[in-house]
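Input structure tokens:
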């Protein structure tokens, strides 16, 4: 009996010390993420991929890697967080304290996991917000503490994801001004690949905060396991992809810690930006459509509302205009049939008149001899013509040759004891300073108060942060990159609160600033200053993986006159259509074509703006020969295909293009539209009826072999 009792006590003791693992499931309709609390109190990522069907299988998953690895402990590779305590100890060991899961709105759940250090009063909360139908997961981190003095945050990632696969392929979107979003794919082997930026205000000039990660093999539109990830932060970011000695991959996303060490006082909370990702096991196309659906419903300003077509004056006049010339151009907007006339740069400044980019920024009063009756005259003239009026501003910047600079040099980011360096003859205002925030808000508020008929702002930002020193922050200079962005958001929050329905374009010398936190405040972005339609096929293709067509401004201009007005317009119709062109330079046929294209675009907006995008043929395939995109309405009753022969090879064999996203059981009439006056269609099967099954299995002969030739094909269920 004594031996039996002793064995029973041993078994009881063993059971009490080896607690069962606790699983935390973060699910969407298609994605499953499983986190695991082990008996040591630490949190591990056991799984990330296609949602698992049976909870009983969770116990069979491998332990995985620690979810939010810390600096200073036993890990040998890049950490997610590094904290320096009051006693100079740089270590952190996070253990699970609790977690909470709740529904925050229909189809959206949030999981909050509270972690604490076992030696210091430091708390880290990991937030995961899952969007069920759209299959997007948002994650961010909150850091706080109760130490007597401020702690120093050296690194503070928004997310850390782990993968254990045979191979990894990273697709990035690097480039430069007028060559934005250039795609390239490389395998990830041992070591680190870092995508980052240190430019501050115009942070994304060389690379935007987005990536595609293919697992096991390179993915394509319809095949392969893929992660699409992007950061919502309008400033310096860093993505780190590190393959370790076991061939496991960690992906770390967040603010770039470069010159951004942050002092966190007791009781305050540091919240990291949001990192968004989706997973697909059927290629990039589905992952991309996940992002589009989510953005339109949850993130993009006025994401489920229409967009304004417009005529911009920039390439028609540059800085050389007056009131009469602008009113004349409004007549061109009416002829085209667009919704709005947009006045670009050059309308402001008197002591330092804005006649070029060398002066005037910051002095937001109308130039008297150009606009003797002010902006109100232009608003009224637009209203007479039943169109809206929009205007360009660049409120975060200042010209050294300006009244603002002369009066408030203390508002300018500049080194106190160095010669100033200018990018595009301008400098950046210090948005960490609340007085500067008031001024920047006042640029918009002042114009809207004086001229409430203004219907649209094009908000530009042409310079990165140079001369990196804040007169306001004094001994906290490493806060500048973070507090600048936070100051910008405070301004934009005030604008959105006072003018909730005011549409604005996010512009930054092209696409130097594009992310989903900024797009909470902007209805669209300017993808590139490069409006050459051939280059735009590539630029718009790259951004389309993350951003829906309605968010991407695309203008018809005179860039590349070797391409017809039809080709240029057809490219621009795959985004938010605008024109930046003089009608007086057009032939009558070109004008007639553009007028018809605008009407077709407005009629097809439910497909282009709200529908599903299928990238049928990539411009990267072959030697820049062809491209084709298809937009399909959600009810699958209407679709539109844009097809482009760019530089096809001589005698090249042309194959049918299989369509996607249609209803196999429906009958569709196929009809080529956007034809030049007097031109008939050469499309095989034009104005005939095909089943959706046929169109998706056999396809259409969309390409012709002619250089710089485009087709727009409307597909309608009967």
């Amino acid at each position: 009996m004594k031996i039996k009792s002793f064995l029973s006590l041993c078994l009881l003791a063993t059971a009490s010390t080896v607690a069962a693992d606790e699983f935390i499931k973060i699910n969407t309709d298609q994605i499953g993420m499983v986190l695991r609390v082990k008996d040591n109190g630490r949190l591990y990522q056991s799984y990330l991929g296609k949602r698992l069907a049976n909870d009983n299988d969770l116990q069979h998953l491998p332990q995985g890697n620690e979810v939010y690895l810390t600096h200073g402990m036993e890990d040998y590779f890049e950490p997610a967080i590094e904290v320096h305590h009051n006693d100079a100890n740089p270590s952190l060991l996070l253990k699970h304290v609790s977690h909470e899961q709740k529904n925050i709105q229909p189809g959206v759940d949030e999981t909050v996991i509270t972690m604490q250090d076992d030696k210091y009063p430091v708390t880290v909360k990991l937030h995961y917000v899952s969007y069920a139908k759209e299959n997007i997961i948002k994650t961010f981190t909150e850091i706080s503490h109760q130490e007597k003095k401020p702690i120093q945050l050296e690194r503070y990632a928004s997310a850390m994801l782990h993968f254990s696969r045979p191979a990894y392929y990273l697709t990035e979107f690097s480039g430069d001004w007028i060559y934005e979003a250039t795609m390239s794919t490389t395998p990830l082997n041992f070591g680190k690949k870092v995508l980052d930026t240190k430019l501050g205000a115009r942070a994304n000039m060389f690379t935007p905060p987005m990536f595609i990660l293919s697992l096991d093999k390179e993915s394509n539109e319809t095949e392969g396991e893929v992660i699409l990830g992007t950061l919502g932060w309008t400033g310096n970011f860093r993505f780190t992809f590190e393959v370790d000695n076991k061939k496991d991959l960690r992906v770390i996303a967040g603010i770039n810690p470069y010159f951004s060490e942050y002092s966190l006082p007791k009781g305050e909370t540091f919240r990291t930006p949001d990192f968004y990702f989706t997973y697909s096991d059927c290629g990039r196309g589905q992952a991309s459509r996940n992002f589009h659906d989510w953005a339109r419903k949850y993130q993009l300003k006025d994401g489920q509302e229409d967009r304004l077509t417009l005529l911009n004056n920039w390439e028609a006049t540059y800085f050389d205009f007056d009131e009469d010339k602008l009113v004349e151009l409004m007549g061109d907007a009416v002829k085209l049939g667009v919704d709005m006339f947009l006045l670009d740069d050059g309308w402001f400044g008197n002591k330092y008149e804005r006649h070029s980019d060398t002066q005037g920024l910051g002095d937001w009063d109308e130039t008297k001899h150009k606009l003797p009756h002010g902006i109100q005259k232009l608003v009224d003239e637009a209203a007479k013509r039943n169109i809206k009026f929009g205007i360009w501003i660049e409120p975060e910047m200042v010209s050294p040759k300006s009244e603002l600079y002369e009066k408030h040099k203390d508002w300018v980011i500049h080194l106190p004891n160095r010669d100033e360096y200018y990018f595009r003859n301008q400098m950046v205002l210090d948005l960490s300073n609340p007085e500067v925030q008031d001024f920047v808000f006042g640029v918009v508020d002042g114009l809207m108060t004086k001229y409430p008929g203004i219907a649209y702002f094009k908000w530009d930002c042409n310079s990165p942060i140079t001369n990196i020193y804040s007169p306001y922050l004094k001994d906290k200079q490493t806060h500048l990159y973070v507090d600048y962005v936070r100051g910008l958001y405070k301004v934009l929050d005030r604008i959105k609160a006072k003018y909730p329905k005011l549409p604005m374009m996010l512009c930054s010398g092209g696409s130097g600033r594009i992310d989903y936190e900024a797009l909470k405040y902007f209805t669209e972005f300017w993808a590139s200053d490069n409006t050459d339609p051939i280059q735009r096929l590539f630029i718009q293709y790259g951004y389309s993986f993350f951003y829906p067509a309605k968010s991407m401004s695309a203008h018809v201009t005179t860039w590349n006159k070797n391409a017809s007005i039809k080709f240029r317009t057809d490219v621009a119709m795959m985004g938010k259509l605008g024109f930046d062109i003089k009608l007086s330079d057009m032939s009558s046929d070109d004008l007639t074509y553009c007028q018809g294209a605008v009407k077709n675009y407005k009629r097809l907006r439910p497909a282009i703006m709200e529908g599903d995008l299928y990238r049928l043929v990539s411009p990267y395939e072959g030697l820049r020969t062809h491209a084709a995109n298809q937009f399909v309405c959600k009810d699958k009753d209407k679709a539109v295909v844009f097809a482009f022969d760019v530089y096809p090879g001589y005698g090249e064999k042309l194959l049918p293009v299989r369509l996607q996203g249609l209803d196999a059981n429906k009958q569709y009439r196929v009809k080529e539209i956007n034809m030049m006056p007097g031109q008939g269609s050469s499309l095989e099967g034009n104005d005939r009826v095909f089943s959706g099954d046929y169109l998706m299995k056999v396809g259409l002969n969309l390409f012709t072999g002619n250089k710089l030739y485009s087709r727009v094909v409307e597909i309608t269920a009967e």
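The CA atoms of residues 21 and 38 lie 5 Å apart. Confidence is low (pLDDT under 50) at residues 1-18.
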